Amino acid sequence: MAYALLLSVFVISTCGLIYELTAGALASYLLGDSVTQFSIIIGVYLSAMGLGSYLSRYIVRNVITVFIQVELLIGLVGGSAAAVLFMLFEVAVHFRSILYSLIGITGTLVGLEIPLIMRVLKNRFEFRDLVSKVFTFDYIGALFASLLFPLVLVPYLGLIRASFLFGIINALVALWALHLFRREVLYARLHAAAGGLVLVFLTAGMVYSGWILHFAETLGYKGNIIYAKTSPYQRIVLTRDGDSLQLFLNGNLQFNSRDEYRYHEALIHPGLQSLREPKDVLVLGGGDGLAVREVLKYASVSSVTLVDLDAEVTKLFRSHETLVGLNGGALKSPKVHIINADAFIWLKGETGKYDFIVIDFPDPSTYSVGKLYTTTFYRLVQRVLKDDGVIVIQSTSPYVARRSFWCVVATLQSLGLKTTPYHTYLPSFGEWGYVIAKKTPFKMPETFKPDLRFVTPAVAQTMTEFPADMGPVETEVNRLHNQVLVRYFEEEWSRYTH
Fold it and tell me: pLDDT digit string (tens) for 108-126?
């Protein structure tokens, strides 16, 4: 019986850390800035565990009964928390307060577990052995959870289903303890019935977790959701609104099919048109193939290397009939070589040289993306650029995020690159900015392909003109050790969106 409870320590430790990791991942998905969110979640959770441990001193009677009640409550609250938070995100006015309250409640309950188990076991082991055994199983459970969460739970179950699963496990621990100590538990049949109801509720939540997530997403997206999937890296949602398609990654709009051609023509043609007979092109990001579509309009281009982290995105845009039509089948072209890898790591081992390099990453809203805007990353890019080659970088909105935009410019200039900032208006996004960088000065082309829908010589000339409210401002250089760009971006966009 004693060793069965020690095994329970391993199980509840695993469950407790899974709830913490789930909350941190969910907060970073919904609120951005993963470092800040994980730091706050960990702080709130650990302090709540400390509170729970302190409160355990006031439980002086019926310890095993209280332990069973605590396990059922943890299963109920912790197991359903992810589903509740996803559904409330778009409708709750004080979402952060709800998030941290749920984390605090779960952490407090988890903090009660180990002190209660130790008191149940105190007459079965010497104190020295008791402490070593309990904490050994506790720490091993934490290690198991830390490996299980990113390698299995997130990619194969998703946050909501995983949360319900571990709520079920907590409830089963309660029922197992009830079986072991059935003669010592007050109102054992009532607790068994309560445990059964909790199991039914959590099992139903797990079975219908897909529907729950779909319902939550319908609250946040305009139009009908026609595709949704959670990859190991992000939540991918495709919606249809009338005759337009929108792609969202972790809730952030990536393009609208009505005007994406404006963005991608502005991204590609000023830089690529300036080159004489470009042959080798590197596209970093842009797994939708829309930038590649524009690149392939140049007959001289013989090779396009597309490096995008998420294989689910490139697979979707290579196989979905409507999306293949949107990108013109670009990802099926024999000229295109797709590599699903972290661009930062991939560039370290790349030995080729490129005429034209497109950097089409999401905005630097998190440190994991912000590293792709640092001097360290741009040095890697510079190393694979031919002497007369051109780099172009999407660089967020110079109107909404003015410091962020000019920070990208300053970072490139700090490496000795010659920069040409430019911008254009996109109906779906507003004013949007780009930066062209070369080892030598850049001159905007005087002619463009006649079949373009947006970019013309006259339009291109206006792109480099910045009005006073978008003009240059002094910023720090974005380096890997400071990631100042992420802070700029968070401050500027939070003012705009709230």
Answer: 999 998 888 888 777 666 7
Domain that holds residue 233: 217-254
Q: Look up residue 27 and give its DSSP letter.
A: H
CATH code of the domain containing 60: 1.20.1250
User: What is the DSSP annotation of 248-298?
Assistant: EETTEEEEETTTHHHHHHHHHHHHHHTSSS--EEEEEE-TTSHHHHHHTT-
* pLDDT, tens digit, 9 for 90 and up, residues 246-269: 999 878 889 999 999 999 999 999
Q: Total domain count for the chain? A: 3
Whether 196 and 242 map to the same domain: the answer is: no
Nearest CA-CA partner of 469 in 437, 431, 497, 436: 431
Cα angle 357, 395, 472; round to 5 = 120
How far apart (Å, rounded) are the C-alpha atoms in residues 335 and 200?
54
Q: Whole-angstrom Cα distance, residue 495 to residue 274?
A: 37
Question: Do 335 and 235 share a structural domain?
Answer: no
Nearest to 364 by CA among 334, 395, 339: 395
Residues involved in catalysis: 360
Q: Which CATH number does the domain housing residue 236 bear? A: 2.30.140.10
Task: State how far the Cα of 200 lies from the Cα of 182, in Å rounded to an integer.
Answer: 21
